Amino acid sequence: MNKEDFCPYCEEITRFRFITKQETLPVMGEPVEYQARVRRCAVCRGEYAPTELEEENFKTAYTIYRRRHNLLSPEQIRVIREKYGLSQRNFSRFLGWGDITVHRYEAGALPDAAYNVMLVLIDDPLNALKVFMLNRNNLAPGVAEKLKKRIQELIRKDGRGPGYGDDEACGAADNLSSVSVKEP
Ligand SMILES: [Zn+2]
């Protein structure tokens, strides 16, 4: 179907159609081949992509890069965060990251490999409990208290064995954490 819009080559409103073509975009210095969607002007046959189409094409290339490197998608990151009932800022603080890191990831920025591993691990409430014992002071007391209850609830729901997730287990995780953070 033909539509009309401003053609940057003709410098006037012309009819165009969408075409797909193979393109390569460097993502984190790595060439990613993908199917780009661009407009082709019916008059001059020039190909162009307005900003929103450019963004769509970037997303396509990023998605391929994510799959290749097993990086979580913005949607997957949001689901993990919401499981713990935290805002983007508080989730960042919980993980010991800069305040806007999670916001950037959920907006589409590619997570650094080490941060991606952290996000994959934190999906497990038992790991979340250990991180909580390390980083709870990064959170306001009310937020921390609510988070602890939420993590305990998730662990119980997972049926991870009696005692796991109660205050005693938190204490155990606390000891575990203090051992594991010691320098060799
Ligand atoms: Zn044109």
Looking at this protein, list some descriptive labels.
184 residues; alpha+beta; 2 domains; 4 strands; binds zinc ion
Main sheet overview = 4 strands, antiparallel
Number of strand segments: 4
Task: Name the helicity range.
Answer: 40-55%
Uncertain ranges:
171-184
* Total number of domains: 2
Which sequence of SSEs, written as H and E, runs from N to C? Answer: EEEEHHHHHHHH
Distance between the termini: 66 Å
Q: Output the number of helix runs.
A: 8
Major sheet: arrangement of strands: 1-2-3-4
Structure notes:
With 184 residues, the chain is α+β, with helices and mostly antiparallel strands. The protein folds into 2 domains: 12-68, no CATH class; 75-180, no CATH class. The protein has helices at residues 51-68, 74-83, 88-94, 101-106, 113-122, 125-135, 141-157, 167-180, and strands at 3-7, 12-27, 30-41, 47-48. Helix 6 (125-135) packs across helix 8. The structure holds zinc ion (ZN).
